[in-house]
Every structure is written in structure tokens, then in C-alpha cells.
Amino acid sequence: ALDQFLKIPPLASIPLLPRSYAAVWQTGPYASEQRVRGTVKLHTTVTSDRSDGTAVAYLYDVGPLGVGKLITHAPFTFHDRAPGAPFGVDLELFSTAYDVPAGHRLALVVDTVDPLYIEHNPDGAHLTFSSPDADPSYLTVPLRG
């Protein structure tokens, strides 16, 4: 509620995110401002030890002190998958218009718990993200000059 009243995006300390619960990828710092405009797209391969599950992908603007401001996010849920069998996921994060200041970086975080969404992860479930040679993972961020 405070975030909405002050009109600041949700914040996260990216270096302090527990890597056993969240997957994190970061760019290097940008030399100039980056203007994100449109829909960010994620393609990755997921392996779960359960047949059903949920994850949420977040894109953050991370400043020099490691504090990330949420730019966009999107959940994905899967059902009836064979446990232990990898499968591809294509996810479009919510469209956005956001300016990343010079000296900041982008971080993609994928987590399995978010209080805004109903999760379908059984207790003790594990998700693994990979990038096989035959189907490499990628993140497409629409930047405008």
C-alpha cells in the first residue's frame, strides 16, 4: 500500500535474494540510458520434480547499490508435466515503458512465490532453469534509441 501511495515501484535487494529460491541473471551496467518500450519476452527451459507448478518472472532496474526497482513481471503455471522432463516456456511479461538510467543494469529474477498470485507449487517442489544447446534460453528486451 505504501508503494502505491508514494508512487514508487516495488523494490528488492538483488544481491540478498536467496539463490536457492530465486534464479537471477544480470546485465553489466549500461553506459547510457536505456529506454524499455513494449513487451519483454522470456524463453527458457524448465525442469520440475512435480507435475504442476508456478513461477513468476520479474525484470528489475538495478542501481549501483544493488537495489532493484520492478519494471515488469508475469507469472506462469504448468500442469500435467512429466516430473524430471524438461519443457520449454515462452512468457511475455506485461508491456511497459521504463527508462533505465546510465550506470544501472537489468536483472531477470525468476521466483516460485509471490503474494499477488496463487501458487501451484507442492511443498518441497524444485524447479530448474536451463539453456540447452538445441533450445537456448533468451530474454528479449525492446529498447528504443
The CATH architecture can be given as: Sandwich
Shape: globular
Total strands: the figure is: 12
Low-confidence stretches: none
Largest sheet: 5 strands, antiparallel
- The helix fraction, in percent, is under 10%
Taken as a percent bin, the fraction of beta residues is: over 45%
Name the assembly state. Answer: single chain
Q: Total number of helical segments?
A: 1
Straight-line N-to-C gap: 34 Å
Mean pLDDT, all residues: 91
**So, the CATH homologous superfamily?**
Galactose-binding domain-like
Explain how this protein is built.
- The structure is a single chain.
- The protein has 145 residues and is mainly β.
- The protein has one domain (11-144): Jelly Rolls, CATH 2.60.120.
- The protein is built from one helix and twelve strands.
- The chain has a five-stranded antiparallel sheet, with no helix packed on it.
- A hairpin with a 4-residue loop joins β5 (53-62) and β6 (67-78).
- It is globular and about 45 Å long.
Helices, strands, pairings?
Layout: H1 2-6, E1 11-13, E2 22-26, E3 34-38, E4 41-48, E5 53-62, E6 67-78, E7 87-92, E8 96-100, E9 105-111, E10 127-130, E11 138-140, E12 143-144
Antiparallel strand pairs: 1-6, 2-9, 3-8, 3-12, 4-7, 4-10, 4-11, 5-6, 5-9
